[in-house]
Amino acid sequence: MTFYSNPVFDTDFPDPMILRAPDGWYYGYATQTIVAGRTLNIQVARSRDLIHWTRLGDALPVKPEWACYTQCFWGPHVLAADGRYYLYYSASPDAGDGLCLAVAVAAAPAGPFVDSGAPLRCGPGFANIDPMAFDDPATGQRLLYWGSGFGPIYVQPLAPDRVHFQPGTEPLPLLYPHGTRGYERLIEAAYVVARDGYYYLFYSGDNCCGDNAHYAVLVARSENATGPFEPRAVALGTPDSAVLQRSARWDAPGHNSVIRDAAGDDWIVYHAIDRNRRCLDETIAGDRAVRRILLIDRLVYQKGWPMVAGGIPSATEQAGPVLDLPKR
C-alpha cells in the first residue's frame, strides 16, 4: 500500500486532467505556466502511482497558426481513442477577441500534439473554456462539454473524426449559474463520469484565482449524459452543491478530474492554492499569478452522491490509490 500527504506535485499545475495510458503511466496535463524562464503552453507530467510526479515538458510545443502570439492556453483535456490521443484546450486567437475551443492530436500521450488547423468554436469573453471530451457508454456519442464566462455549461456531439462538431448539432445548455446558491455565481470546469446508473457532472465555481479566490468543486447528476442534471444542493436541500471546499491551509480547491484505481475507488485530482506559499516564482500576468498546485483525495459515495471525507482537502497522511501496475 502507498501513502501520501498533500500536495502530491508542489508546483504550479493549474486545471489538472489525468489520463491512465496503456503503458501503465498516469499522465497529467495542465494550463500554461512558466518554468525556469520557459513558457510551457500545455504542461505534461507523468506518474506511476498518482503520488510521485515528473514533469515531461510541453505537450503542445508548437502553437497553432491561428494563435501564434498568444500566451493563453487553458484547461486541457486528453482523450485516448482510435489509437491516437486528442488534446482539447482553450486559447486566445491572434485575430479577434475572446477565447476559442481547439483540438490537437498526437500518437503518444506525452505528445507532441499538433493542432488540427482551426478552432472548434470561438466567441467573445471567456465562455469557450475548459473543454472535456467524453464517450457516452450508453449511446456511443462522442460528446464535448465546456463553458464559463458567467454563462452555462454546454454539451455538443463531436463528429467521428473528433476534431469537428457533429454537423447539424448545436450546443445544449446543461447547467446555468445561480446567483444565490453557494459558489455558483460563475460555473466552469466540467468533468463527467458514469457510475452506477448515473452521470456525475463535477464542476467548479466561483472565482479560481487572485487575492479574492473563492472556489470549490461542485456536483450534479443525471440519468443521461446530456441531462437534465440536478445539482446536489437541489436534490438534498443543502446551501450549496460542494464536494470539496477550502480548508485552513488550502484556498480555492477546484478544476478537478476523476480517476478510478484498481480497487474501484474514485480519486479526485485537483488544484488548490497553498496559503503558506501563494505566489509563483515567475510572473504570469493578472489573477493567474498564484501557485495552483496538485492535490488528490479519495471520493466516497453516500446515498448516491460523491463527497471528499470532511468536505476539505486532506491534511494528514492518507492511504493512497490501489495500483495494478503492469510488469515492466
Alpha-carbon Rg, integer: 18 Å
Number of helices: 1
Q: Based on DSSP secondary structure assignment, what is the total number of beta strands?
A: 26
> Could you name the CATH topology?
Tachylectin-2, Chain A
Tally of domains: 1
Low-confidence stretches: none
Beta-strand content bin: 35-45%
SSE string, helix = H, strand = E? EEEEEEEEEEEEEEEEEEEEHEEEEEE
CATH class: Mainly Beta
Class based on secondary structure composition and strand pairing: mainly beta
Q: What form results from the Cα inertia axes?
A: globular
Largest sheet: 5 strands, antiparallel
Helical amount among residues, as a percent range? under 10%
**CATH level-four homologous superfamily name:** Glycosyl hydrolase domain, family 43
Distance between the termini: 19 Å
Present the secondary structure layout.
Blueprint: E1 3-4, E2 17-20, E3 26-30, E4 33-35, E5 38-40, E6 43-47, E7 53-58, E8 73-81, E9 84-91, E10 99-106, E11 114-115, E12 121-123, E13 132-135, E14 142-146, E15 153-157, E16 172-175, E17 188-195, E18 198-207, E19 214-222, E20 230-231, H1 232-236, E21 242-244, E22 250-260, E23 266-274, E24 292-302, E25 305-308, E26 318-319
Keyphrases for this structure?
five-stranded antiparallel beta sheet; 1 helix; 328 residues; 44% strand; globular
Structure overview:
The chain has one helix at residues 232-236, and strands spanning 3-4, 17-20, 26-30, 33-35, 38-40, 43-47, 53-58, 73-81, 84-91, 99-106, 114-115, 121-123, 132-135, 142-146, 153-157, 172-175, 188-195, 198-207, 214-222, 230-231, 242-244, 250-260, 266-274, 292-302, 305-308, 318-319. It has a single domain, classed as 5 Propeller (Tachylectin-2, Chain A), CATH 2.115.10. It starts with a strand and ends in a 9-residue tail after the last strand. The chain has 328 residues and is mostly beta strands.
